[in-house]
């Protein structure tokens, strides 16, 4: 990611820097050339002015006399000028007659000087300053002469300039290794930092290139090295001023810049790589920790803690994730506690349902026993009713026979014998009735006892239904706490509560029926006691009749009285027998109603048993769901 942009930037920088450096060096060379040109122009302009002043002020006659127009000594003036201008080696005046005046003591002789071009050119070009080629003085100093014809044309004034002073002024560097050169009109060096022998003529090819125009730039090769030159021409002297730049300096600096750029790129890439590695590591390390923690949490270990001491987005992510895990753990704990409570409630509800089912089974069995006893009671009552009817008929017959006794006294013995047999039969029947009545009384008492047991069982059922309702209510509350996961348990708990309410309703109905049966059984028991008393009286009457008939057999004299007493007793017996028959009919009707009520109770008990079995099934399903929920929760490790 960083290498390619860095290489592109480095390469672009290297190229632009090389071009910019070359441009800067060329500008520096151009500036150096212009500076030297300005120095030469400035220096020579002053000398040109001084030379013109002398040329215009002095004539050939003044030169010959040795005085100025003002009367000042010419020699003193020239000497003073030389002494006050360090860059002037000599100033002198040469007349056409060979007389010369010098400011310096070792000046040239007039005869020799008049043979040089500086003299002849100045004479030929009046009013124009002539510049000579470079030469060395007798003292070995590099110099150049400028000359100008006198105002009357009879001589010249000339000045030898110290090139070393000019070279010192123009000794400028172009870059680090570049330099400035200056050639006169004859291609002789005026200034060259590498040459001690000034005045040497340059014959290299670049000189021709410099002479192609007043200014310009070009590349050339000299002494095996590639160079570039910017040159200009001094307008006063015609000298060529050139600024030389070595290509190796440009390439060297560019190479140095390239190496520096490469080093910067490498350093930037290394540092950037280290920084990226540190950044990626600082990002990946917490992400790896977060991944490992999430993997542990995904395996159910909710006790895993994310400890990231960071304040950036990853730290906020870890903090939010830890908060989510804590909330999930709290939810799991709450669901676990609710599930355990629900499981316990389901177990209690199952136990209560089993107990209720067992109690209802006992009630059903007791009701079946009551029904069986009622059937037996009904059969006994029917037999008793038949016996009582027979007794009534026999008593009627006895009454008729006693009526006939008055008419049939002659057959008293036979009738007494028959009466004795009839009384014996009556006594036997009364004993049988007494036995049946006692048995019926025992059955009624047993039925009453069974009814009380049924009432106790129904009370237990009502208590179990109430406890079941409370357990269902607790299960609904725990399911509501469990939220969405407990919705199924809430439905089951609602159905259980409805079943418990139905059980309580049926228990109340059974209690009402049992109370009615108990009330009717109490009446039946009272009637049976009355019937038993009547039967006892009938037995006593039969025994009395038997005694009377025995007395009839012994004595006939008291027969009339005995028959009359017997008639009265038979009348009362008939009435009592009718009462007994009516009581037995009532008891029979009560037995039928008791049988019907017993059937109703049995049906209700069977329905209650079915409800209890349904409650047991729902409770078992609820317990199974709670166990499944506990198994799911056990997959999570919280502590």
From TrEMBL:
CDD domains in UniProt: HAMP (cd06225), MCP_signal (cd11386), PDC2_MCP_like (cd12912)
Positions of the Methyl-accepting transducer domain: 352-602
One Gene Ontology cellular component: plasma membrane
Keyword Mitochondrion: no
Domain HAMP, chain residue ranges per copy: 281-333
InterPro entries: dCache_1 (IPR033479), HAMP_dom (IPR003660), MCPsignal_dom (IPR004089)
Subcellular localization: Cell membrane
Biological processes per GO annotation: chemotaxis; signal transduction
Membrane topology listed for this record: Multi-pass membrane protein
Superkingdom per UniProt: Bacteria
PROSITE patterns referenced in this protein's UniProt entry, alphabetically: CHEMOTAXIS_TRANSDUC_2 (PS50111), HAMP (PS50885)
Gene3D superfamilies recorded: 6.10.340.10, Methyl-accepting chemotaxis protein, PAS domain
TM stretches of this protein: 257-280
SUPFAM superfamilies the UniProt entry points to: Methyl-accepting chemotaxis protein (MCP) signaling domain
Coiled-coil regions, chain positions: 556-639
Alphabetical UniProt keywords: Cell membrane, Chemotaxis, Coiled coil, Membrane, Transducer, Transmembrane, Transmembrane helix
Keyword Membrane annotated: yes
Assigned protein family: Belongs to the methyl-accepting chemotaxis (MCP) protein family.
PANTHER family: METHYL-ACCEPTING CHEMOTAXIS PROTEIN MCPB
Identification of the protein by name: Chemotaxis protein
Organism: Paenibacillus yonginensis
